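Predict the holo structure. Ligand: MP5.
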Amino acid sequence: MNIKKALTIAGSDSGGGAGIQADLKTFQELGVFGMSAITAITAQNTLGVQAVYPMGPVAVTSQMESIGEDIGVDALKTGMLFNAEIIRAVSEKIKHYNWIKVVVDPVMIAKGGASLLQTEAISALKQYLLPLSMVVTPNIPEAEVLTGMSIKTMDDKQEAAKSLFDFGVKNVVIKGGHDEETDDAVDILYDGNEFYYFTSKRILTKNTHGTGCTFSAAITAELAKGSTIYDAVTTAKSFIQAAIEDELAIGAGHGPTNHWAFNCKRSGL
Ligand SMILES: Nc1ncnc2c1ncn2[C@@H]1O[C@H](COP(=O)(O)OP(=O)(O)O)[C@@H](O)[C@H]1O
Ligand SMILES: Cc1ncc(COP(=O)(O)O)c(N)n1
């Protein structure tokens, strides 16, 4: 069996709903072989982040080397990178291995408000990592921080996408999960030429822990299998919609999404 291989470079979420855990569950559900390079360990549950223990940059790159020297990578994503040293080291390794299918989820703040990226690391993200990315997937607050723009309307989203494209990103997806006053959750994709819109009905739920991680992991899995960007985002949008719809009421706070739901729905279960 010629299985495709996907790598996540991200933080561990002990609660299992976001980070490395969400990414590996998504990779598995979408039929790719999942691997990880852990950037930080978080003590986390549905109520929030209780502690963050970052790894040193060499600990992160040595995980990437172990994978690069032996197994290889068809596509990778980055999630929580925490500080500028890790961003710089990860960017250098991606360049070294000439890994092309790179999805950057610029994780900054957990749903409960904890910081997952130091403020001084934002310029490193723009300078070193965005130019290496095939796709970047900010939510609205992240796109605002990266561009310095205030994003309220669809026109603002388009302007922000163009501005992110100018950092050297090949495709920009601005996610609409935080657009809470709209009935639909609309994600937009900009490839430097055209805008594409991915629309689904907004689900009223507090159980959205890990939606961004799961969405970017699904894009990564589909790119690893050879999909176009448009098809990868289409599948990721269906995957996350099914996962939010079929919510898991786990814990007392913001619960996780259901990573089985997409395949259950596809097989009529
Ligand atoms: N309540 C919701 N109903 C339907 N889709 C949602 C909802 N919340 C988020 N999404 C979708 O989940 C994905 C992640 O979006 P978002 O929540 O904005 O990211 P993040 O987790 O990074 O903040 C996007 O495809 C978005 O449209
Ligand atoms: C380790 C880790 N990485 C990322 C997130 C962001 O989660 P979300 O996808 O809900 O924004 C998180 N809470 N924890």
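The chain has one domain: 5-266. Strands lie at 5-13, 33-45, 48-54, 75-78, 102-104, 135-136, 171-174, 184-190, 195-201.
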